[in-house]
Specification:
Elements: H1 4-10, H2 15-37, E1 46-50, E2 56-58, H3 59-73, E3 78-83, E4 90-91, E5 98-106, E6 117-125, E7 147-153, E8 157-162, E9 167-172, E10 178-182, E11 193-195, H4 206-217, E12 228-229, H5 235-245, E13 248-251, E14 264-265, H6 266-279, E15 283-285, E16 302-303, E17 305-308, H7 310-320, H8 327-332
Parallel strand pairs: 3-5, 11-12, 11-13
Antiparallel strand pairs: 1-2, 3-4, 5-6, 6-7, 7-8, 8-9, 9-10, 13-17, 14-16, 15-17
The protein binds 1,6-di-O-phosphono-beta-D-fructofuranose and magnesium ion (2 copies).
Length: 333
């Protein structure tokens, strides 16, 4: 079985990109060890620090962020990093070629209950002469990503990666290597499984209520088939299920804070996951347009997300087609 490095070299990936991806995986291995030891290492629980999103940081949010930051800023090809857990980006080598944007630990609310979490990353290329300690240097559309991926820390640690030529899956072995286990993952085009936090139902816009209402009616409603529901509350784990066996994952706009376009973050959640999903034959949308086409305005910008099986996303879009001028559409475009 090929290691990640062997696979990337055999696909003619640029040497610096290979080294960078290997360094991200080295970081993920360190994070996996901390997660495995959990309570034994005293790393569970919260801190009293609030991040720029207004969320209380877990001890492991900070540890994972520090591991990635330390390992990446050490590399010559890294011009800067931006993270969910950093107010502002941090500049690296001013001659570096790549910017790395990441969610060091996704699904933080699951850490203390020993449920799957993950690391999400997006790699961009520096545009000419930019100050990489400034957020503007990172504000590129999702379509400009050079690579994106995540590591899911579940029963096994799994990497799903794209460099723009399909999505490939690797599993962390006993020897400490990420070994190739599946090339060109494909999301089935149709599905009977959905993932959404139903407790927010009363806050959704009418089109989302209508769409999910019809899923719940199953074979007795207009969809004429039954749907199953899953919600892990770690985007990484929910998206991994979609990549593996199909489905639709949604964190739509809601009116709890009408000025926020959604809960999830564009640069280190929406964009990398959308790149992976599109590369695996699925679709990713705000309900009004492709996530990968959004011109970002802020590094911690939020976005409404619906991604997964092609036919299901197209159906969801039809429910929203009559409401293109509403608030949610305006907030995202
Ligand atoms: O608590 P909720 O509303 O179920 O939200 C869960 C969502 O929030 C997130 O945990 C946000 O990510 P972070 O843990 O990185 O802040 C997603 O992974 C997940 O899909
Ligand atoms: Mg997250
Ligand atoms: Mg996070």
């Amino acid at each position: 079985m090929k290691t990640l490095g062997q696979f990337l070299i055999s696909h003619d990936e640029e040497k610096d990109l290979v080294l960078l991806l290997e360094r991200i995986m080295l970081s993920c291995k360190e994070i996996a060890v901390q997660l495995r030891e959990g309570a034994l290492a005293g790393v569970l629980g919260s801190t009293d620090i609030t991040n720029v999103q207004g969320e209380t940081q877990k001890k492991l949010d900070i540890i994972a962020n520090e591991v990635l930051k330390r390992n990446l800023l050490d590399l010559e090809m890294v011009a800067g990093i931006a993270s969910e857990e950093e107010d502002l980006p941090v500049a690296g080598n001013h001659k570096g070629r790549y910017l790395v944007v990441f969610d060091p630990l996704d699904g933080s609310s699951n850490i203390d209950v020993n449920v799957s979490v993950g690391t999400i990353f997006s790699i961009l290329e520096v545009q000419s002469n930019q100050d990489c300690s400034h957020p503007d240097a990172y504000l590129q559309r999702g379509r400009q990503q050079v690579a994106a991926g995540y590591v899911l820390y579940g029963p096994s640690a799994t990497l799903c990666l794209t460099t723009g030529d399909g999505v490939h899956q690797f599993t962390l072995s006993d020897t400490g290597d990420f070994l190739l286990c599946q090339e060109h993952m494909q999301i089935p085009t149709s599905t009977q499984e959905f993932a959404i936090n139903m407790s927010n139902q009363r806050f959704w816009e009418p089109e989302t209520q209508h769409y999910v209402g019809d899923l719940l009616k199953g074979a007795d409603g207009s969809r004429e088939k039954n749907f199953n529901m899953r919600w892990i509350a770690s985007m990484v784990a929910d998206v991994h299920r979609v990549l593996t066996r199909g489905g639709i994952f949604m964190y739509p706009w809601d009116n709890r804070d009408p000025n926020k376009p959604g809960k999830l973050r564009l640069m280190y959640e929406g964009n990398p996951m959308s790149f992976l999903v599109e590369q695996a034959g699925g679709l990713s949308t705000t309900c009004y347009g492709d996530i990968l086409d959004i011109e970002p305005k802020h590094i911690h910008q939020r976005v409404s997300v619906a991604l997964g099986s092609k036919e299901e996303i197209n159906t969801l879009m039809e429910y929203h087609a009559s409401a293109r001028d509403n608030t949610a559409a305006k907030l995202n475009t």
